[in-house]
Write a structure and sequence with these properties.
- The complex is a heterodimer of chains A (634) and B (473).
- Chain A has 634 residues and is of the alpha/beta class.
- Among the domains of chain A are: 103-259, Rossmann fold, CATH 3.40.50; 480-628, no CATH class.
- Chain A contains 29 helices and ten strands.
- Chain A starts with a helix and ends in a 6-residue tail after the last strand.
- By secondary structure, chain B is an alpha/beta fold.
- Chain B is built from 20 helices and seven strands.
- Chain B has helices spanning 10-19, 41-51, 68-86, 103-115, 142-149, 171-176, 192-200, 209-218, 224-242, 250-267, 276-282, 284-288, 297-309, 321-335, 341-345, 355-358, 378-388, 412-423, 432-435, 450-459, and strands at 30-34, 56-61, 124-131, 160-168, 184-186, 427-430, 443-446.
- In chain B, the strands form two sheets. Chain B has a five-stranded parallel sheet, with helices on both faces. A two-stranded antiparallel ribbon of chain B has the order 6-7.
- In chain B, strand 3, helix 5 and strand 4 (160-168) form a beta-alpha-beta unit.
- In chain B, helix 3 runs parallel beside helix 4 (103-115) and helix 14 crosses helix 18.
- The longest helix of chain B has 19 residues, at 68-86.
- Chain B starts with 9 loop residues before the first helix and ends in a 14-residue tail after the last helix.
- Classes of the chains: A alpha/beta (634), B alpha/beta (473).
- Chains A and B meet through strand 1, helix 5, helix 8, helix 9 and helix 10 of A and helix 3, helix 10, helix 13, helix 14 and helix 17 of B.
């Protein structure tokens, strides 16, 4: 045995530094190319095919989004007109002797802060004024009332300015003064002053986050307006949870006042499946004859939508977008969606074709059906371009599933009047040949049983043109694990920080990023990462001093010192503290200086860890020990 | 002095007549009117002063004045307006009532104002009635005292003297000023029969178009008398069943009456319209319970049946599946002692040795109904969530490798749902404003009742009561 090997074997501890190959990342970095896609087949893919993949993706994406935009627009418009109509019907509802003492109330279920209200236009004899109130406007009832009156008067001023007829009218100074009292008297003075009735629509945004006692007092206060002629108050309550929870917080007398003339609108676009069906359908139409969806992918969409309360449509769009993008990003065969690109087909593409499961199945059936031997072999070896021809044949083959889906939807909606089906679920069952199971929910479907008969066919090479979630990329990309991601990124900061090449490019353009920063970055990782690598190896309680010493040791001290010294000597760096820093450097020797620097960095890193939520100090004890916050696999 | 006709309040009127007079010599400076809500205080006062117009008076509902500055300014404005109306010849427009920003300035203003009327021959009283002063939550402790000192601080030589009548409903208000020796008139609650009479005086019911239409539809004698008979029966039923619920408050009863009227009219038909017992029976639901909700029960059940066919997660104002489990986890974290977590939630009890493995340290009985929620850190809630959340691994498909783990790890989805819970205030952070969301000391607390969590747990088939002992349903 050699001496070196022997010495190595006698060592008690080994330092192993995992090699991170920066070059392997840089090889994907196609520098000047404006296209963010990378060359597949280990970089063997030609530039043109990357470009055409990129173009194809953009075209499909644009197609999908134009149709989605129209759908989303129509949703918005529908919601707005719906609210406006309801308010109209509420305020135009004449008050009889019995209903005189009641507010008009509109409950918007499942609305969020962005929900816009449009109020009906003013009529001959009354003004409609909308007042938006946010929880922060209502710290107490006095300010809340003030805010309401202020906003009301403000919008009245706007109205009068835009209206040429009444612009000349001057108000009595006395009256104007009383109006500025921000008192209930304003409501009494309204009709005599403005000569019209008032419909005051108070939109309480995020109603649940109001201080309930303030809100109640305010509603109680507004009861005084019920007795004033010519004023109608309409409350718009925006609820995100449910009505029961909200009304539990209210007094009975308030509930009584609100409940007589009350309407509800369910705004959640997720209520029912109408909109998600529309969007999913438009996606299917968009990728029709091009891409298929795997059952696993559809199942994934279904599950994730189930776990989301309010943002269902956005989530669906996000998943579809992401899956489309990731498909084009990592599947080299995606260029063949456009048959015109068939001239790109060459050896490297054909090589993998023979490994497709569907193709193998096909060959198996050929063998079973005793097809001639030459045919099979020529297909497998691509003699006389048979395989190529075969592939092209199947490219133009159509999957009947989308047409069938249209048929079924047509039957459901037009013949059976069923609208509350979930298209995605329906599609999922179709892919699994269990359509009948899904439709058995509705008895009326029995009549059309034979129409619903559907067999999903396997097309050869289908898996090359399928949106799938088989590698977990979607789950990982769209729903990353918080903690694991955090830890991974802290360990390998190279993954998320810009690469050195990029930094260099930025440094050339931008004075902000200085040479010093760049060089320092090459020497050490960001400080929090440096701390984290040590943190990972420690026990759950860490002695701060030990931690600090370890941190100090882990730094490449002399290199840093040299770097700083050389930089401070030059005039490249211009800071206000330069003189000071130089003085400090001169006064201290290397060890001392590095000690101090390490301490500063260490405190910084420790605090950052604390804010990220992986470390905590103990409350009642001295700061000798910090505790790890460990989330074992949470 | 003219005596108004206010039924059942004769005694109180006697006192009013005795204490209220236009002559300053014959009347005390302050008068208290005490009585619970709905005992006719405002009504009687209004009637009284309407009948005796020669006594100058201003009635201000104190609740609407909100705080002391606006009270003073409002009072000053009203005083000047009233005097301007009574004595148009006297010039008062140069006095600015908006200067009266607090009680002291108000007193200055009043003195300046009253001095202008010194040419009057006779001394007169001006009554200011502050109605329901204790309903005003924003008024501080001193303002009423300062206001009470107001009549005494008017210059004695002024020909107009200020008199104050303060009405209030809480007797605790009176005890604050018991040493003031203010004459007090007490208005007791009405008796049931009296309430029935008062409620039946509400206009608009017997000639309600809805009732007229229904009566025409049924096609029996549509006379005024018959309609009012039906109305009287309706009132009788309601009062019999709900008078205790409202605390003998006629105004609340009238409100309830209006809300239930539509339902009642709709239920009228040929059989029950002449049969009192039948009429009561067919509307048992209406008269049995107050049933005061924002959305009536009937339309609510319609909604449920609609969303019942779809999956639970799709109706937005209910929570989605994951959010429900998170809420349950938060509830358990709030109400269970963290010391027993490993015993309650861990499935690996065999790994632990000693006493904890066989559970000698048994849980004390706890019933969440009577406890306050305690704060917990987020990671504890997520750990509990992980242990109770059923990950749905579909058998038919080969699960992707993230699903192979049977535990739900906290991914973005989970966090989205947590934030959803926080925005809807089902989950609240203690000291959130001070600490911020990321702080390691931030603790959370669940903000739902036991009944609510039972509903939520029931909807996902999770037996939450098994985690608590001593829960009696």
């Amino acid at each position: 045995m050699e001496l070196a090997a022997f010495a190595e074997s006698q060592k008690q501890s080994f330092v192993f530094t995992p090699k991170f190959n920066r070059d392997s990342i840089d090889s994907y970095d196609n520098g000047s190319s404006p296209v963010p896609f990378v060359k597949l087949f280990d970089g063997l893919e030609s530039d043109e095919s990357v470009l055409s993949r990129w173009a194809l993706y953009n075209k499909l994406h644009a197609d999908f989004h134009t149709s989605v935009d129209t759908i989303l627009d129509s949703i918005d418009r529908e919601v707005v007109t719906n609210i406006s109509n309801t308010i109209q019907s509420l305020i135009s509802n004449p008050a009889s002797e019995i209903t005189r003492n009641d507010f008009k109330t509109l409950i918007l279920l499942g609305s969020d802060a962005e929900t816009k209200l449009e109020i009906p236009a003013d009529t001959e004899d009354c003004y409609n004024v909308l007042v938006d109130i946010e929880p922060k406007d209502a710290p107490n009832v006095r300010l809340l009332l003030k805010r309401v009156i202020f906003k009301m008067l403000e919008s009245m001023e706007l109205k009068l300015q835009s209206d040429p007829n009444s612009a000349t009218e001057e108000f009595d100074e006395e009256v104007m003064k009383s109006l500025r009292l921000y008192d209930m008297i304003v409501f009494q003075l309204f009709q005599p002053t403005y000569k019209k009735k008032l419909n005051l629509i108070i939109n309480l945004k995020e109603t649940e986050t109001f201080y309930m006692n303030v809100l109640q007092e305010f509603i109680d206060l507004m009861k005084a307006t019920l007795k004033i002629k010519g004023i109608q108050v309409c409350f718009v309550l925006n609820l995100t949870t449910n009505v029961e929870k909200f009304e539990n917080n209210l007094d009975q007398s308030i509930i009584r006042a609100l409940s007589y003339d009350l309407k509800t609108i369910d705004l959640s676009s997720t209520k029912g499946y109408k909109y998600s069906n529309l969007i999913f359908q438009s996606f299917l139409d968009c990728v029709d004859r091009k891409l298929n969806l795997s059952p696993k992918f559809v199942k994934f969409v279904l599950e994730k939508m189930d776990n989301n309360t309010n943002q269902n449509l956005q989530l669906l769009l996000k998943i579809l977008d992401y899956s489309l993008m990731s498909y084009f990003f990592n599947n080299p065969y995606s260029i063949f969606i456009d048959v015109a690109n068939i001239n790109f087909l060459d050896e490297k593409y054909l090589d993998r074709l023979t490994k497709c499961q569907t193709f193998l199945n096909f060959v198996e059936t050929m063998v079973n059906s005793r097809a001639p031997r030459e045919e099979i072999v020529s297909l497998l070896n691509n003699e006389n371009d048979t395989l190529e021809q075969f592939f092209v044949d199947f490219l133009v083959a159509e999957n009947p599933i989308n047409d069938k889906l249209h048929q079924i939807v047509n039957i459901l909606e037009n013949k059976l009047n069923i609208y509350d089906y979930n298209l995605i679920d329906l599609y999922y069952h179709m892919l699994n040949n269990r359509l009948v199971d899904y439709l058995s929910k509705w008895e009326a479907c029995d009549k059309f049983r034979q129409e619903f008969d559907f067999e999903n066919v396997q097309i050869v090479f289908q898996e090359l043109f399928t949106l799938d979630n088989n590698n977990g990329l979607l789950s990982q990309g769209l729903f990353p694990f918080f903690r694991t991601n955090l830890e991974d990124n802290l360990l390998n900061s190279e993954r998320i920080l810009p690469r050195s090449k990029v930094i260099q490019r930025m440094a050339n353009n931008d004075d902000e990023i200085r040479e010093l920063d760049r060089k320092l970055n090459e020497l050490i990782d960001p400080i929090i990462c440096q701390v984290f690598t040590l943190y990972r190896e420690a026990r759950s309680f860490i002695n701060v001093y030990d931690f600090f010493v370890a941190f100090k040791e882990s730094l490449p001290k002399s290199e840093i010192y040299d770097l700083l010294k050389s930089v401070l000597a030059g005039d490249e760096v211009k800071t206000s503290v330069k003189d000071k820093s130089r003085k400090i450097m001169e006064k201290l020797d290397q060890d001392e200086f590095m000690d101090k620097l390490a301490l500063v960095w260490f405190i910084k890193g420790l605090t950052e860890c604390q804010y990220v939520g992986i470390l905590k100090t103990q409350r009642y004890q001295t700061y000798e020990i910090v505790e790890k916050i460990i989330w074992r696999g949470i | 002095m003219v005596r108004p006709d206010v039924r059942y309040r004769e005694e109180q009127l006697d006192f009013l007549e005795a204490f209220v007079d236009a002559d300053p010599k014959l009347s005390p400076p302050i008068l208290f009117i005490e009585g619970p809500h709905g005992s006719g205080k405002t009504h009687t006062l209004k009637k009284f002063f309407a009948c005796n117009e020669e006594i100058m008076n201003i009635l201000l509902p104190a609740k609407d004045l909100i705080y002391s500055k606006s009270t003073c300014q409002r009072l000053a404005t009203c005083l000047r307006q009233l005097l301007l109306k009574q004595f148009p010849s006297v010039e008062t427009t140069d006095l600015d009532p908006f200067e009266a920003e607090d009680v002291y300035l108000l007193q200055k203003f009043i003195n300046k104002l009253f001095i202008r009327f010194n040419h009057l021959v006779e001394r007169v009283n001006l009554y200011v009635i502050l109605d329901g002063l204790d309903d005003n939550s924003q008024v501080n402790l001193e303002t009423p005292t300062q206001l009470m000192a107001l009549p005494g601080s008017i210059l004695p030589q002024a020909m107009i003297q200020l008199r104050l009548i303060i009405s209030f409903s809480k007797s605790s208000f009176l005890s604050n000023y018991s040493t003031f020796k203010v004459p007090t008139i007490f208005f007791p609650k009405y008796k049931p029969l009296e309430i029935e009479y008062i409620v039946s005086q509400t206009p608009g019911f017997s000639d309600d178009p809805l009732l007229l239409e229904k009566m025409d539809e049924i096609g029996c004698g549509n006379t005024e008398q018959f309609r009012s008979e039906i109305f009287e029966k309706y009132i009788h039923f309601l009062i019999e069943s709900l008078i205790v619920y409202t605390g003998y408050d006629p105004t609340a009863l009238i409100d309830i009456m209006r809300i239930k009227w539509r339902c009642f009219v709709r239920s009228l038909n040929q059989e029950n319209i002449k049969n009192t017992v039948q009429l009561y029976k067919s509307n048992l639901e209406l008269f049995n319970k107050p049933n005061e909700r924002l959305i009536p029960q009937t339309s609510r059940s319609d909604q449920n049946s609609l969303s019942g066919t779809g999956s639970v997660g799709y109706s937005s104002h209910s929570l989605c599946f994951m959010a429900k489990y998170l809420l349950i986890a938060a509830y358990l974290a709030s109400y269970l002692n963290h010391r027993y977590d490993s015993k309650v939630f861990s499935k690996k009890s065999h790994l632990r040795g000693g006493r904890s493995s066989y559970g000698r340290r048994s849980k004390p009985a706890n019933n969440p109904r009577y406890l306050q929620p305690s704060g917990f850190s987020l990671e504890r809630m997520l750990a509990i969530f992980q242990s109770i959340y059923p990950v749905r691994v579909s058998k038919e498909l080969s699960p992707d490798f993230f699903q192979r783990d049977v535990h739900m790890k906290a991914n973005v989805e989970v966090y989205e749902n947590v934030s959803e819970l926080i925005t809807s205030q089902l989950l609240t952070g203690l000291n959130m404003h001070k600490l911020g969301y990321l702080h390691e000391r931030l603790k959370f607390k669940v903000n739902v009742t036991w009944d609510y969590i039972l509903l939520v747990a029931g909807s996902v088939d999770f037996d939450i009561s098994e985690y608590f002992s001593d829960v009696v349903e």
